[in-house]
Amino acid sequence: MPLSKTNELNLIMNENAKLTVEHSGGDGWTILHGDMLNLMRSFESGVFDAVITDPPYASGGASQTAKNRTTNQKYSSMSPDKALPDFAGDQKDQRSWTNWCTEWLTEANRVCKPGAVLVVFIDWRMAPCLSDALQRADWIWRGQIVWDKQTCRPQRGRFRQQSEYALWASKGPLPVDRPVGCLPGVFRYTNPANRIHVTEKPLQLMRDVVQICVPGGRILDPFAGAGTTVLASVLEGYEAVGIEVTDAYYKLGSDRVRFALNEATEQKETK
User: Fold this and answer.
1) pLDDT tens-digit profile of 100-149?
2) Rounded to whole angstroms, how far apart are CA atoms 207 and 211?
3) How far apart (Å, rounded) are the C-alpha atoms in residues 180 and 163?
4) pLDDT digits (tens, 9 = 90+) for 69-92
5) How far apart are CA 107 and CA 111, in angstroms?
6) Measured in Å, how far apart are the chain's first and last C-alpha atoms?
7) Which range marks the domain in which residue 215 is found?
8) Domains held by the chain: number
9) Distance of alpha carbon 185 from alpha carbon 130, whole angstroms
10) I want to staple 137 with a disulfide (CB 3.0 to 4.6 A). Which of 67, 106, 256, 268 is the partner?
């Protein structure tokens, strides 16, 4: 189902919502531009089968001074002249971040169907806060998956910090007869070589992860960023709705998804 036109967005958005929503999209996908909490509040209840997302971690340091640096300073080694756009929402302290996560995770729970799944990426510092927030928001915490990035900066006398994580949960019981196979708990992929987002995840990683959703389901990513989850979802046969607040990444992500899907269609037609 195309999700790019306003009248079709009415299938997921509340009729009483009085928002002029800037969005881009195509067959089976859309990315909305704006604040994710405001936009999620305009969605109908029970319209998504999964929420799979990579929110700002508000991490990158043991002290608040370290956390207050820009996202490029915290997460990128690129020189200033080659730096990617910064993104907002990454400078919260742990208590504020936990409360904020509880708020959006509660809204995410409302817009999901019973039995829907939640997958949220996080680092080791903020994982305890995230586990508190998702359970406060009435999700049933199911466990943790590992993204082994395989490479990292070595530090003598310490374990290598080469992994990030994702906590996953469900809205209520998770039937054992769901038409979803047994998925791995560890995924080994290096960081993307040509990133367009400071904290972009590998496309193949996300293509693997979205398969936790029931076949043909509709996936929400409230922090769309580079559009990787949206792109992975469509390539794997799902519908996808992304939300992105940062102007630069709304444009970059939308263009990236559109270009990649057009390229995939052309390749199919030439075979």
Assistant:
1) 999 999 999 999 999 999 999 999 999 999 999 999 999 999 999 999 99
2) 7
3) 25
4) 766 665 665 566 666 676 667 778
5) 7
6) 25
7) 43-219
8) 1
9) 18
10) 106
> Where does the chain show beta strands of DSSP type E?
22-26, 29-33, 48-53, 112-122, 140-148, 163-170, 186-188, 218-221, 239-244
From CA 253, how far away is CA 183, in angstroms rounded?
27
8 found inside a domain? no
In a domain, 246, yes or no: no
Q: Which residue has the tokens 């305890």?
A: 128
> Nearest 5°: phi and psi at 244?
-140, 130
Check: CB of residue 187 under 8 Å from CB of residue 146. Answer: yes
Round to whole Å and give the CA distance between 83 and 118. 31
Is residue 155, in this structure, part of any structural domain at all?
yes
Q: With respect to residue 120, please indicate whether it lies within any of the assigned structural domains.
A: yes
pLDDT score, position 84: 66
Average pLDDT over residues 29-38: 94
- Which residue type sits at 92? K
Q: Looking at residue 107, what is its pLDDT?
A: 98
Q: Which residue has the tokens 């469900």?
A: 170
CB distance 170 to 118 below 8 Å: yes
Read off the tokens for 62. 């043991």
Quick one: pLDDT at residue 172?
A: 98
DSSP per residue, 123-189: -TTTHHHHHHHHHHTT-EEEEEEEEE-S-----TTS----EEEEEEEESS---TT-S-----SEEE-
The pLDDT assigned to 17 comes to 65
- Per the structure block, which two tokens stand in for 242? 């992304």
> Which residues, 6 or more positions from 104, have their beta carbon under 8 angstroms from its beta carbon?
36, 37, 40, 55, 222
Write the CATH number for 197: 3.40.50.150
